[in-house]
């Protein structure tokens, strides 16, 4: 099963209300940049240079500034020229391990190194206060430089600030609602996954990509900060020191990849980035077709009638989708027996498949907390011990659409078995819903339970979860697809073959396209 889309949007007024309630409790940290710039920074000691890199110790250079916690006294720096177009620079706490994005989640490229002199970009540094720059070998043009601002490294706060040219062309640091070319004046991009109903402007959204590409007339380069902690990346132009890009990160280590890109081909930097981040998954061919998807279909008759109406209107529908509406009380891996009964849903999927069309449904990862109800998806997860736990070892509870929920721990060794088993059983082609793709939502993970979430049961009731249905169930034997004509592209082509009409006019030249301009097959199927 493949998913042509990985992110998703929820359209419901209920959800909007919840988001507004949460927004009121958020408070942004405000700190005078002068306070940060007064921090002592570090001095490089014990610098060891090799043919393809360098290591050093960084020692706090003066009185600690302790802005958001105590400054870390000693850091380790490593710089590796990994390819001719990539420098890997890492700064970590010298005395203890800190969180790093696990290899299992983000496999790093095979360790390799090239002689620094063969590289298209170079690392340069100043001993004290320690600062570094990355410049283009051929032109000596500086691409990244921390020289105007001290590096700050505290347990829960890391800051690195680089100068930018005036009116820099910066792209990336998504997901965001800013213009593609980012405004460089007073812009903050916050990276922290959240379920952002309605895609509010200027806020953090569902996914995070801490990478930017900078395009100049002299070339295009890229910078990845491989860190999955929450962060604000600030672009500013009006500060002392000139235009700048500033990372403010709340944990982890400074793990930078600098990509040389190219002096004349802006696409190269994306290729170099893909060597580290991996290539995108290939989308199925049918993923490019016309898809129909919305929240709020009442029942199976409603879904079937949408499919029929596309056919009646002669619009080729490639794929039909259904949101959480199909579930029994919003419980994943269930079908509502009155509104979306299994035999009728199988009939719909069969109809779609018979017409070379596809079907996708939503699966939310949150699993309703239903001990002692014989609800297999909960029981099976408990048996495999894959639920996220609270500090005292009890199951960590939240509130999502079905009410009180548990959350799968995607790092648990049994998780693949759990998820695969549930999919194979519910989406069984023989006995279940034979879907062609799945729509994952709420995987941030989204949780409606407001902090401190002392009583999720009470909150589920207050928030009306699961929301009751507002229509009566349909006649279980209601006829569907009664007047439907087929609507897949290939069927339409059969119906409307303009090139070879069933009645052939007496054209002396033969077929209508013969010896003249080609008669385009302007059937709907060619759209
Ligand atoms: C932070 O530094 C202060 C002053 O040196 C010290 O008293 C305090 O114990 C430190 N706090 C932590 C959490 O290390
Ligand atoms: C490298 O850094 C040193 C010390 O800051 C500086 O003098 C030198 O000009 C830099 N080299 C390049 C090519 O930027
Ligand atoms: C920067 O943007 C913030 C948020 O939009 C705003 O409150 C602030 O006044 C702006 N500051 C400047 C100097 O424009
Ligand atoms: C464990 O902690 C949760 C809150 O995180 C609390 O609701 C629950 O009552 C605690 N369970 C026990 C047995 O202490
Ligand atoms: C089928 O078409 C007929 C004639 O247009 C119409 O009266 C009838 O309501 C349609 N049935 C369904 C289930 O759409």
TrEMBL record:
Q: Which GO terms describe its molecular function?
A: beta-glucosidase activity; carbohydrate binding
Tell me, in a sentence or two, what this protein's role is.
Glucosidase involved in the degradation of cellulosic biomass. Has both alpha- and beta-glucosidase activity.
Which lineage ranks, top first, belong to the organism behind this chain?
A: Eukaryota, Fungi, Dikarya, Basidiomycota, Agaricomycotina
Which Gene3D superfamilies does this one have?
A: Glycosidases, glycosyl hydrolase (family 31)
Q: What is this protein called?
A: Probable alpha/beta-glucosidase agdC
Catalysed reaction, written as an equation: Hydrolysis of terminal, non-reducing beta-D-glucosyl residues with release of beta-D-glucose
Q: Which part of the chain is the Glycoside hydrolase family 31 TIM barrel domain?
A: 280-460
InterPro entries from the xrefs? Answer: Gal_mutarotase_sf_dom, GH, Glyco_hydro_31_AS, Glyco_hydro_31_N_dom, Glyco_hydro_31_TIM
For this protein, the record's PANTHER family field holds:
ALPHA-GLUCOSIDASE, ALPHA_BETA-GLUCOSIDASE AGDC-RELATED
CDD domains annotated for this entry? GH31_N
Q: What is its EC number?
A: 3.2.1.21
Q: Which species is this UniProt entry from?
A: Agrocybe chaxingu
Q: Which SUPFAM superfamilies match?
A: (Trans)glycosidases (SSF51445), Galactose mutarotase-like (SSF74650)
């Amino acid at each position: 099963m493949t998913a042509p889309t990985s992110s998703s949007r929820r359209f419901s007024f209920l959800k909007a209300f919840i988001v507004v309630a949460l927004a009121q409790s958020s408070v942004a940290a405000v700190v005078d940049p002068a306070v940060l710039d007064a921090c002592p920074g570090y001095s490089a000691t014990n610098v060891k240079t090799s043919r393809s890199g360098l290591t050093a110790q960084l020692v706090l250079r003066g009185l600690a500034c302790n802005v958001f916690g105590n400054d870390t006294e000693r850091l380790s720096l490593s710089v590796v020229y990994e390819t001719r177009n990539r420098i890997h620079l890492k700064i970590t706490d010298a005395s203890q391990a800190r969180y790093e994005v696990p290899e299992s989640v983000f496999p790093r490229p095979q360790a390799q190194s090239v002689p620094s002199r063969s590289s298209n970009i170079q690392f340069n540094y100043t001993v004290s206060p320690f600062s570094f720059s990355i410049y283009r070998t051929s032109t000596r043009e500086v691409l990244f430089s921390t020289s105007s601002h001290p590096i700050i490294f505290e347990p829960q706060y890391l800051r690195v600030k680089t100068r930018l040219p005036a009116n820099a062309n910066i792209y990336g640091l998504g997901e965001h609602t800013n213009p593609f070319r980012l405004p460089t004046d007073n812009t903050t991009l916050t990276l922290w996954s959240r379920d952002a109903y309605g895609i509010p402007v200027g806020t953090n959204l569902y996914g995070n990509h801490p990478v930017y590409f900078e395009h100049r007339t002299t070339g295009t380069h890229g910078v990845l900060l491989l860190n999955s902690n929450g962060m604000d990346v600030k672009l500013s132009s009006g500060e002392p020191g000139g235009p700048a890009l500033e990372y403010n990160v709340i944990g982890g280590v400074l793990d930078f990849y600098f990509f040389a890109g190219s002096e004349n081909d802006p696409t190269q930097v994306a290729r170099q980035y893909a060597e580290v981040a991996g290539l995108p998954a290939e989308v199925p061919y049918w993923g490019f077709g016309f898809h129909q998807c919305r929240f709020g279909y009442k029942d199976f008759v409603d879904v079937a009638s949408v499919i029929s109406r596309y056919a009646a209107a002669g619009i080729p529908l490639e794929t039909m989708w259904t949101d959480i509406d199909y579930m029994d009380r919003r419980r994943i891996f269930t079908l509502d027996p009155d509104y979306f009964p299994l035999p009728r849903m199988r009939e719909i999927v069969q109809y779609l498949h018979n017409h070379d069309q596809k079907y996708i449904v939503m699966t939310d990862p949150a699993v309703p907390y239903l001990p002692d109800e014989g609800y297999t998806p909960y029981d099976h997860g408990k048996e495999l011990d894959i639920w996220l736990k609270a500090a005292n070892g009890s199951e960590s509870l939240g509130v999502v659409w079905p009410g009180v929920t548990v959350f799968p721990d995607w790092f648990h060794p049994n998780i693949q078995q759990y998820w695969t088993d549930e999919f194979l059983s519910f989406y069984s082609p023989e006995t279940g819903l034979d879907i062609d793709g799945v729509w994952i939502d709420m995987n941030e993970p989204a949780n409606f339970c407001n902090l401190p979430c002392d009583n999720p049961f009470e909150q589920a009731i207050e928030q009306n979860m699961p929301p009751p249905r507002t229509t009566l169930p349909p006649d279980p034997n209601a006829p569907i697809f009664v007047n439907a004509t087929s609507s897949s592209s290939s069927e339409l082509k059969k119906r409307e073959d303009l090139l070879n009409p069933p009645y052939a006019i007496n054209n002396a030249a033969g077929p209508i396209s013969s010896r003249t301009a080609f008669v385009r097959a302007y059937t709907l199927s060619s759209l």
